[in-house]
Amino acid sequence: MLECIYTSTKSVDFDGLVWGDPSSYPLYLFYINDIDAMIMIQGLPSGGKTIYKVFRDGTTLFVGRITPTSYDPYSISRGRIGWCGEYPSYALYMSDEITFLPYLMNEAAPSLVRPSESYYARESYLDLFKRVWVGHHSTSAQVVCVDIETGLSLWSFNPEAKYKGGNRYNYVDIDHIMITGSSTYSYSKSYGMLVNINTGAIVNIVEYPYSSLQVYDYNHGIFITIDTDRLIRIYANDYYPYALGPVIPEHYGLFSLVGQDIKVQLTSIGGFPCPNRLVTWYLPTSLGSLEKAVSVTDADGYAWNYYYGPLVAGGLETIMVGWG
Amino acid sequence: MSLSFIKEIRPFQPFPWGDYTSTYDDPVKSLHRFVYIESRDEFVVGGVFNVSHLVQIWAANLYFDGETGEYKYGIAAPWNLWQLLGYLPMVWSPGSFGKVYSTAIDYALPTYMLCEIDVDTRLPVIVMAVPSNTWNPPVTFGICTYCMERQEAIIIGGSTFGEDNIQVWNCSDPYVPVRKSIIDVPGLISNLCYENKELIWMITEDGIIAKLNYELASPRYEMLSSVQDPGGDTLGYQVTYDTKRKRVVVFRIRADADGKNQSSLEFYRPYYVPSQITDPVPVKKIVGGQVTDFVGHLLGSAGEGVAAQTVIPSLSVGANGNLLTNVAPTSLNGSFLVRYNVGNSVYTDELELSADIGDLFE
């Protein structure tokens, strides 16, 4: 889970439609490098989509509309968006930098060969530097990366059920993209997979505490969400504590009468260490004693203490730890 | 870049025998033209109007002064003559050479007649006849909103049949016009107007105004803005470009109130108009004793970033932390960054931002 460092006081304003109405809720959120702000795209009950420019404090500005009902936006490297055209070609168009509308005369990847028609061209990611396209299968949610010139599959994986869909893509950096699931409105939480674009390896999993639209602002290394309460939340790109491991004696067993170093590791939801966090120590049985009541986790997420064993043999010592 | 509002001319009283400018049926569809005539330095609004409770239909051109925008006079439009000749007359539209052009459709041939308008007699002179069934690919739009670049025989037409795009056609071979490009638009097109051999302006039914470079192989927008206070009691918009003073002029159509005209002319100048600073937002966790960055944007009235200005941050009196940024310049997208050194206790500081933009029109 990420740590929320800011919640907007302004609500994102989008034409008064009800969030949760599948015909009109905001569908997509992209971080656009050129404007250092976000583009939010909302479905319209009458078809077509409305485009808004959204700033981090919740300021929302209407940009325009796109009328073809079946056009869907997709993500392009370095914080741009494009539009996927209509059946049967599903051509991938670049977008205009002012209106964010599709350049209908400018196909981004005319040679792209998808593995099959069932791999969505829309809701995908196109990396114009690495010359690869990442998309997902419409039913199995299999995520695949192909060379846009040759159509050769470079890697693929099948995300777990809770990540099924994988139809939101965001550029993170030259080597990574963030893939989030589809049914963000049916879960109480949202998940995102940080994926290495070269290998397809999932290098981290982030959990957003709200059902929301998410985007990664790669210029500032923060995650930005728009939640069902229409507020914007900013999450620091920091591993938020999720679990403490067992207390580990460094040299001997805890049964020893000899004093020794003990440690405990604090990790995030993906098992990643959380440095610079406070860990509290407590001995309810007090057979022995601890050097410190509070210690700080190191770069590997370990908090250290020194345990003085009991003077008299026998008994069961319990060491309780917590984080704050 | 955005459009800054200069002035509004409202209301005007077009007719000596009454103030009515109610249109014959649909007030938007009944207004056929809004054009700046450079040689006469006048704006023309053309349409079918009610002139009184007794005389309800009057096809007329209303003329406005190019400098002041004040109403000058109205003259009956001659185009009903075209209908008698079997043509369906189309709108007036500005084009190259500072001329005004118009089209007519001859359904019998079938042919588009592309005409230059004699602005003194208001009669058309056919300059090109293009068969309407030989366009490649077959044309899917009516040339109801269009601009004409006559030297290169380019027609820039706005689709009016729900496809919502602008199409650029090369008619140098009038028998087989070729589509050069097709450009998506941010809303239903209300009107197009010509600026020069590269640029046109468009306005949507929502009041969005965009400037488009149509000459490029991949046409691109150069500006996106809007009329001030879109919506409300507005029924529609028409746009034209004052090539003499480099101003965008919008005719805003409103229904008459108590028999009096409420429509207006609005004048805009393409210029940055800083109008708001977004709230500063932290992009790093606020930790005692460490530096936190706050970011924000200086925005124009259409939400565009305003570059090359300075934002001045300040803390309230008695602040516990301190600012490391005294002056924050805005970047090309209007963003700025303020660095704040966090104190070591638990407290509340207030960060205020201001921008001195001076008088932009001096």
Give a brief rundown of this model.
The complex is a heterodimer of chains A (324) and B (362). Chain A is mostly beta strands and 324 residues long. Chain A has no helices and 28 strands.
List keywords for this structure.
heterodimer; A: 324 residues; mainly beta; 8-stranded mixed β-sheet; 5-stranded antiparallel β-sheet; 0% helix; B: 362 residues; 4-stranded antiparallel β-sheet; 1 helix; 28 strands; 1% helix; elongated
Helix content of chain B: under 10%
**Major sheet description of chain B:** 5 strands, antiparallel
Secondary structure: number of strands of chain A:
28
**Mean pLDDT across residues of chain B:** 79
Describe this structure in words.
Chain A has 324 residues and is mainly beta. Chain A is built from no helices and 28 strands. Chain A has strands at 3-11, 26-32, 37-43, 49-54, 60-66, 72-76, 80-84, 92-95, 102-107, 125-127, 132-136, 143-147, 153-157, 168-173, 176-180, 190-196, 202-208, 212-217, 222-227, 231-236, 243-244, 248-249, 260-267, 278-282, 289-290, 294-296, 302-308, 320-323. In chain A, the strands form 6 sheets. Chain A has an 8-stranded mixed beta sheet with strand order 9-8-7-6-10-11-12-13, with no helix packed on it. In chain A, strands 21, 22, 23, 25 and 27 form a 5-stranded antiparallel beta sheet that branches. A 4-stranded antiparallel beta sheet of chain A has the order 1-20-19-18, with no helix packed on it. In chain A, strand 6 (72-76) and strand 7 form a beta hairpin. Chain A is elongated. The model of chain A has no long low-confidence stretch (mean pLDDT 82). Chain B has 1 helix and 28 strands. Chain B is an all-beta fold and 362 residues long. Helices cover 1% and strands 49% of the residues of chain B. Chain B is elongated, with a radius of gyration of 25 Å. In chain B, strand 7 (100-106) and strand 8 (111-118) form a beta hairpin. Chain B starts with a strand and ends in a 7-residue tail after the last strand. Chain B has one helix at 80-84, and strands spanning 3-9, 31-37, 42-49, 58-65, 71-76, 88-94, 100-106, 111-118, 123-131, 145-149, 154-158, 165-170, 178-184, 189-194, 199-204, 208-213, 220-226, 234-242, 247-254, 264-270, 274-277, 281-282, 291-300, 310-315, 322-323, 328-329, 335-341, 351-355. The longest helix of chain B is centred in the first third of the chain and has 5 residues, at 80-84. Chain A binds chain B through residues 3, 5-6, 8-10, 34-37, 51, 53, 55-59, 61-68, 96-99, 101-106, 217, 220-222, 234, 236, 238, and chain B through 162-165, 181-188, 204, 206, 208, 210, 217-224, 276, 278-286, 293, 295-297, 299, 302-303, 305, 331, 333, 335.
